Amino acid sequence: MGRTSMKFGAWLFTLIVASVAGTPPPSSAAEKLVAGYSSISPAEWTLVTAAKANLFEKYGLDVSTVYLGGSTRIVQVMIAGDVQIGQIGGSAALFGKAAGVDMAFIATTINSMAAQVLSRPEIKTVADLKGKALGVTRRGANTDYWARFGLTHHGLVPDKDVKILYTGGLRETYLALQQKQIAAATMGLGNSFGKMLQREGFNTLIDVSKLGEDFPFNGIATTKRYLQTKRPVVVNFMKAYIEAMKWNLDNKAQSKKILAGYTGVTDDELLEIAYDVYILKIRAKVPYPVNRGWKTLIDFTARDNPKVKDVKAEEILDDSIVKELDESGFVKSLNLK
Q1: Contact (Cβ atoms closer than 8 angstroms) between residue 34 and residue 233
Q2: Does residue 249 sit in the same domain as residue 279?
Q3: Which of 121, 307, 330, 332 qualifies as a cystine partner to 98, CB 3.0-4.6 A?
Q4: 83 with 68: CB under 8 angstroms?
Q5: Alpha helices in 90-213 (DSSP H)
Q6: Is there a contact between 69 and 37 (Cβ–Cβ < 8 Å)?
Q7: Could you tell me if 123 and 268 lie in one domain?
Q8: Statement to judge: residues 281 and 139 lie in one domain
Q9: Total tally of structural domains belonging to the chain
């Protein structure tokens, strides 16, 4: 590991210590790995639940979960080897593959464009955004794709008619809107920040969910190298993850406490809305890494990044882990179907 990677590793270790403080230490024989997630939002719920409910430990793993703002950031850290598995959007996996990373997208947990563009109260129409700034988390992240897709659908040219501003995270986006640094922003449906903005009089300018049905919003990814060398670890990771999906269904009150704990949102109405959207409605029942939506994603993002047009979804998707757990009866034993 080079000096740059070592420095980053030290920084990452500090984050990890903070993120797992208070968690009982697992068995010394447990396999250690770091799993990254990209946003402080309900989209990360299942991963955080698997850690907080000690399900990773159940399957012999010592998993440290760490927040790294934006899916593309997780892919960058995977390259350095400091994160082995990430919960990321399909767009980040696509950009990673186009950049030469041996991505393996092993599960699709949400496959819809469950998103919206919210604007300040004075912005009444999409046309009002011309000449103004729209906030997204990071370049290549889901929020970036949703913004560009929504603007293009309404005849505006991203980066020309509307400036795309990268905030670094959803909380930062929320504050940027409040402080008038941006005129609008993209956020997932059911996101607590979005609901708080709507309460404060901000407008739902574009319902992106109505512009396209299939989209690899969220999933589990690793590198092909890690999958090949540590396949049993990845299998156990997915066992814990899928069991966490069931745990959230069976333990609503505790599940909401977990969401409140890592997002800082304690308003029960907001927690209920998030639970209804992310746990009951849009999650995959069996998280196969489906191919639906990838062609649209590739075709659209190729406008901005020509290298993407040569990427095939089949080069990224690997359904072998979920298929193994499904065909073995593991998924059925949880009564998720």
Answers
A1: no
A2: yes
A3: 307
A4: yes
A5: 90-98, 142-153, 170-178, 192-199
A6: no
A7: no
A8: no
A9: 2
Average pLDDT over residues 281-295: 93
CA geometry: angle 287, 69, 237, nearest 5 deg: 35
The candidate with the shortest Cα–Cα distance to 192, out of 96, 122, 118, is 118
Domain of residue 227, CATH code: 3.40.190.10
* Final residue before a domain boundary, out of 180, 210, 240: 210
Q: The domain containing residue 178 runs over which residues?
A: 115-210
| Whole-Å CA distances, 40 to 109, 142, 233, 273, 291 | 17, 14, 26, 16, 26
Residue 131 contacts residue 123 (beta carbons within 8 Å): no
- 101-153, pLDDT tens digit by residue? 999 999 999 998 889 999 999 999 999 999 999 999 988 888 998 999 999 99
- Number of neighbouring beta carbons within 10 Å of residue 137: 28
Are both 97 and 18 inside the same structural domain?
A: yes
CA pair distance 65, 126, nearest whole angstrom: 38
The structure's pTM equals 0.83
Dihedral of CA 301/305/306/309: which sign?
A: negative
Segment 164-219, tens digit of pLDDT = 999 998 889 999 999 999 999 999 888 888 889 999 999 999 999 888 778 899 99
Cβ-based neighbour number of residue 329 at 10 Å:
9
Strand partners, 61: 31
